[in-house]
Amino acid sequence: MVAGEVERVREALRALEAIPDALDRAAACAELLREWPELHRLVADVRQQAVRTAKDQGHTFREIGERMSVTGETAGQIAAGKNRASS
What we know:
Distance between the termini: 19 Å
Strand content: under 5%
Oligomer: single chain
């Protein structure tokens, strides 16, 4: 289920806090932050494709937006690639 994947990402991020050595913890965070722009783009691309697929499957942007906790208008913008920074 969707919540499982999201929770695993959260757990991985919380694991950074649990790294006992401060220098190792700082280095791990720095590495993640260096990669963050590309990771953010990847998540945005996956989201955009999922919205487009849901639309192609007959869902309305309103339905899609409700599932994503955004407006239908925002879901349409995501599908069009015009809402790259929002959740």
